[in-house]
Every structure is written in C-alpha cells, then in structure tokens.
Amino acid sequence: MHRVNLSHRITSLISSPQLYHAVGQGALAVEIRRGDSRTRDVLRSLGHWQTEWRVGCERACMRILEGGCSVPVGVETVLEELPEGEDEDSSEWTKTAPTLTVSSPTLHFSGLLPATEKYPSPTCTSIPPLTKRRARLTLKTCVTSLDGKRQIIHSPPAELVKSYAEAERWGEICAEKITGMGAGPILAEINVIRKERERLDVEQAKARSMAGESMELNGASAA
Fold this sequence. Notes:
By secondary structure, this protein is α+β, with helices and mostly antiparallel strands. About 35% of the residues lie in helices and about 10% in strands.
C-alpha cells in the first residue's frame, strides 16, 4: 500500500505478535546458471542489500529450525542502517561469522562490494576495496504447534551487523535460542507427523500405480 501511495486506505497495521510472516515473504529473487558471471554482474544493479541481509537472516533461522512450507515458523525482520560515523561496538558472537575471502559466496559481498567493482576471481590474491556497512538488525521468531495451542516467541533486541554473513549468523543464534526456549519439542512433534504423512503419501502413490498396472494388464488380457 505504501509503494502505490495508498497508505491512507490502511485502517489497521497487523504485525507481530498478532501476525508473523513466512521466511522470505515478499522478497523476489532471480535464478541464473552456475558460472554465468556475465549475467551475475548485470543483475548486480537490481540487488537490494538490505533485503538480502534480512532474507539471509530469516533463511538461516529456518535452516537451523529445519523448517519449511509445512512447518509453522513465523518471522519478522527490521533492518536499520546506521549513519556513517555513528559508533557502536560489535557483539562477541560476530566473531563466529565467516570471514570474507575471495572464495566466499557471492551473496557474502552483498552491500559491501561497490557496483563498479567486479567479484573477485579464484585467482585473485586479495579482495577489492569494500564499502563499510553497519546496521541494526531485528529478528523476531515464533514457532507454533499444529493445533495452535502452543506458541514460542523470541523477540531479542536489535543486533549490530556489518555483513550478510553476520546477518546469517544472527539468524542461526536466534534459532538456537528459541529451540532451547521450548520450540524444540514442538518441532520434533511436527517432524514425526510430517514423516508419517510422507510415508502414507508414498504408500498411496504405490497403491495407485499398482492399480493402474493391474487395469492395463486386464485390458490387455481382454484384447
């Protein structure tokens, strides 16, 4: 509504804790062929590092929780870039985030590599000059039981992040925290139910396949 200048039509803003969105909800991505460096470089102008950092944080959280479309994991992220020169100390956990090198994944250069610079090749001995980024990243997470009777919510204060890798690491830490808060048993129950449903789906698919083969054989015999 904001993007199409219809904010005045909004009667109520629905956000956490009333409503959490799915991981990556609303973010758009473009998939290209592996090794297609030309297309990769062309698409850099379409990138939005703020969105990439938020989605990286959300997906890292979901990865630790082993969630997916069938698991009720909700998130809400907010990223606020700090003005240049504003001083704020990093937390101790940032030391556990991967260090950026020439062999780091492309996304790890998100927001740090100027558009005029090419991604470093494997033959490079050092990474090119990078833009310094500092942002406060908030991640709120909830895990809900399938019957809706139990819900665990984790809403830590915003954390300072300086790269995509740190945003990912913060998502992992939040996932580990909410698991220890009681989300672990809920997720374990959901996984048991999911595996049982998958087993039944496979059995039903086999039964349909065998029934179809039987009908073909009967038809051939009649002919």
